[in-house]
Amino acid sequence: MTSEEAWNFIKGMHRRFHSRLKHYGYGYQSFIPKHPAMSEMCDQEKLTPEQFTEYRKIFIDQIYNKEDLRQMDSVLAEKAVPALQEIVKVLRPFATKWGVKFPHTVEILTTYGGGGSYNDTPSRIIYRVTNWKDGTPQDSKILWTTEVLQHEFIHLLIEQSIIDKYSVPQDLKEQIIDIIGVEYFGIPMQDKQFGATPCRAHALQYITREAIENDLPGAVQRMMADWSKKKQDELALHLMKKNQNG
Rounded distance, CA 116 to CA 152, Å? Predict the structure, then answer.
């Protein structure tokens, strides 16, 4: 990313973090450079335009260096393309049954932080490449890179046709991606955000290998119908107990 692209990403993630992501257990550290000013900014939910201007100046003048974002270029060239080609090869027969089309092109942009995210219009994976722990071996970086890109590519593949269509929330969406990832590509599940939540056990009842290979949209539709009923029953029970105690 250019300096402006990288800053706009950080600013956008500040908004997403406070409006949505923190409620699902995310921290903001993976979306920003390791710098006290950026942490200070993200600690604050409400910022004035003038404050954003000050933080932007710090980022542009003191933090951004395009060489920081080029450190994994050779890995992307040598490992990312084969990893994504493997996704296409394995999932193409299933995707045809799902009514899902592979994007003609996928752009990969690197920026600050650690991990990955995606945009589906246009098809783009944002890979955050700077927040490695000191002493992380190169083999671990390569493995992490391929797993992150494959995970985000699966997101891209089913976002519009399945996730948006059935209004799947963030926590259940990640379960679907994780189940596909571990079943076919050995990608570890994201225990940090969602491993301890009931949504994983719920998703595993529906997103089976058979469902993935034959009718993922139908499985997701049934999963969401039962999830909605479960939440309604929980709310009704909560209100009944509240009335009894009140």
Answer: 7
* Counts for the chain of helices (H) and strands (E), in that order: 11, 3
Q: Which residues pair with 129 in a beta bridge?
A: 114
Cβ atoms of residues 174 and 189 within 8 Å: no
What are the angstrom distances between the C-alpha of 52 and each of 19, 37, 113, 236?
17, 11, 19, 43
Tens-digit pLDDT string for the chain (246 aa): 999 999 999 999 999 999 989 988 889 999 999 999 999 999 999 999 999 999 999 999 999 999 999 999 999 999 988 999 999 999 999 999 999 999 889 999 999 999 999 988 889 999 999 999 999 999 999 999 999 999 999 999 999 999 999 999 988 999 999 999 999 999 988 765 545 577 888 999 999 999 999 999 999 999 999 999 988 887 777 677 777 776
What is the spatial distance between Cα 27 and Cα 45, in angstroms, rounded to a whole number? 13
- Are 174 and 197 a contacting pair, CB within 8 Å? no
> What letters, b where the CB count within 10 A reaches 16 and e where it falls short, cover 153-169?
bbbbbbbebbbeebebe
Whole-prediction pTM value?
Answer: 0.90
Report the chain's C-alpha Rg in angstroms. Answer: 20
CB 167 within 8 A of CB 98: no
